[in-house]
Amino acid sequence: MGNLFPITTMESATLSQLDIVVVGQLFKEGDNGTLRNTYNREIEQHPDINQTLGTKLKNLHLEIKQQKLPIQNIRTAPITITSILMRKSSNISITHKKRSGEILTGKLKTAPAYNTRIRDNIFVPDKNTFNNAYKVLNLPP
């Protein structure tokens, strides 16, 4: 809904400073922990919220309310690498496997076959030549 109610950089900084970071904070909290459909007027009464930002927040609340979404009390959590990975659409195991592979590949000083060929008494050129030939495999076709 950012196109309907564009919030400027300054307004975003104000909301962040006031720790207003999720749309659930626009709704009043009920007794049983769920959110009620009523607008949280405490937000607009804050001295740092100007009239324009207050109107945008009210309109955003009305638009969400009209969609008749199931309202649940969602608390904010600190942004961490784990929370970002958990929100991604891809599988976290695959992401971890790819990242671990990249780290191990980065630790290789010489191609894996170099030491194997030396062990098996197969002729090998010097390390630099062998590594340059090995890197050719990673070039795009």
List the helices and strands and how they pair.
Elements: H1 9-17, E1 27-29, E2 35-39, H2 41-44, H3 51-66, H4 81-87, H5 92-107, H6 112-119, H7 127-135
Antiparallel strand pairs: 1-2
Structure explained in plain terms:
This protein has two domains: 9-66, no CATH class; 81-138, no CATH class. The chain is elongated, with a radius of gyration of 27 Å. The longest helix is centred in the middle third of the chain and has 16 residues, at 51-66. It is mainly α. Helix content is 49%, strand content 6%. A two-stranded antiparallel sheet has the order 1-2. It has seven helices and two strands; from the N terminus they run H-E-E-H-H-H-H-H-H. The two termini are 43 Å apart. It has helices at 9-17, 41-44, 51-66, 81-87, 92-107, 112-119, 127-135; strands at residues 27-29, 35-39.
What attributes does this structure have?
141 residues, mainly alpha, two-stranded antiparallel ribbon, 49% helix
Could you provide a short overview of the structure?
With 141 residues, this protein is mainly alpha-helical.
Report the strand count. 2
Count structural domains: 2
Outline, from the CA principal axes?
elongated
From the N-terminal CA to the C-terminal CA, the straight-line distance is: 43 Å
Q: Structural class of the helix and strand makeup?
A: mainly alpha
